[in-house]
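Please check this:
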Amino acid sequence: TTTTTTIKTTTTMSPTTITTQTPITTTSDCSRGQVDVAFIVDVSGSVGAANFALVRDGIATAVSRLTVGVDRIRVAFMRYHTRQFPEFFFNDFYVSSEIESEIRALVYDASRKFGTGTGLALGYFVDNFLLPSAGWRNIDTLVYVVTDGASQDDVTPNSAYLKSSGAQVVALGITDLVNINELEIIASSQEDVILVATFGDVQDAILNDINNRQLCVDTTTTTTT
C-alpha cells in the first residue's frame, strides 16, 4: 500500500536554507521498523508558549504516523532549558495515540525567561534515557535535538558522548538565530542538520525526515494537517 502526500519542508546541508515542495510517499515496505526514537526539545525563554505549542503539536503529529509497539518503534521525550525534564521513556508507552496525547498535554513554563543548556541536556539524556531500565534496546537509535538558538554551555563534550552510544543524532534548528556550527557539532553529520524558518515548519520537517530515513509509518494516517 502506498500513499503520497506533498508537504512543504525547509532543510539545509550547509549554511544556505532552501525551501521546497517535497512529495512524500509512505509505504508498508520500510527498512527501519525497530527503532528507538527520541526527542530532546528546547523550551528556553526565547521559545515562548505559542511557539512551543507549534513544536509540541508538530512532533505529536509526526509521532502519530509511526508504527509504535513494544517490538516496533519506541519513543521517548524530554524537554530542557537550564534544567532537564524527562517526560517519558522508551518503555512508558507502546501505543502511538497515547504518546501523541502525552506530548500534546505538555505545558510551557512561562514563569520566567530560562536560559539554554543544550550541552547539559545531551549528557542528561545519555545518562538517563540510554539505559535498559528506560526501555532503550541498544539498537537502531534516532535522536532529534530541537532548538531555536545557541546554547549557553559547551555542547562539544556531550555531543560526542551521545554519538559514542551509536545513536544517529539529528539537529533541528528553528529560525535564523540558531548557531549552525553548533548544530553541526551536535548532529551526526552535516546531512543530519535541518534548518526551518519558523516554528510552524517543524512538523513537516520531521515528517519528511522520517520518510527519508525509511522509518515504518502507519499508511492510514499520512495526510498532513
Remarks:
- DSSP finds six helices and eight strands in the chain.
- Confidence is low (pLDDT under 50) at residues 1-29, 221-225.
- The two ends are 21 Å apart (CA to CA).
- The CA atoms of residues 9 and 205 lie 5 Å apart.
